[in-house]
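Milestone M4 deliverable, item 7.
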Amino acid sequence: MVDEFLAAVEALERAADWPERFSEPFVEFLPVTGAAVSTLGETLGSETISATDALAARLDEVQFDLGEGPCWEAMRLAKPVAESAFQSAGPERWPAFAAAVRDEPVSSVFAFPLIVGPLRLGAVDLYSADPVALDASDNRRAATLAEVIGRQVLRGALGSPAVADSLDVNPRSRRTIHQATGIVLAQLGMSADDALLIIQGHAFATNQPMMDVAAEIVDGRLAFHRDNGGIEVVS
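Output delivered:
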């Protein structure tokens, strides 16, 4: 089972061109009925990227409309959200959301944020028709999948022509970007690819040319630090 999960993670790393598949591993490896992956908020807008079934997609849509629910809470807190007893406790936590889906076969809900560096991009929404709880192993697996998907979602956004143009990367200035990547790599202890992704994502989120962000990092005017398991921006 461990080997199968690792193979699924590796496949997900290569699935950038098939975002509709992003939700599938959650149902395969976790004791849940359905899953949906969505972007939320101002950075990428609110949109369902992938859903395993119609109800999973509907749970996302209701949360988009109401601005309330486990996905919004997971993204706001930047940590997983769980409610195993949704039918009894859901109305108190998310009254509007719970009322909107009270007739649906949803007994438990879970949400895992999609985060890349300091960017909160969206969430993975999970539901179960039967009451269930995720154990430590389940949570680790879900968090691992959400981390990979978060990077894929951001790469997809950065790869669009409109965003690529807005980053305004000067090919003659790659040295500054290379230096900045090395600095972020050292600050956060991550791979060069992920460090570059952090720089690109920050440029996109703050509507700046990538070169300007790289120059701020090299000059020491912008830094990234790990804080309580997350990543914060210091400028």
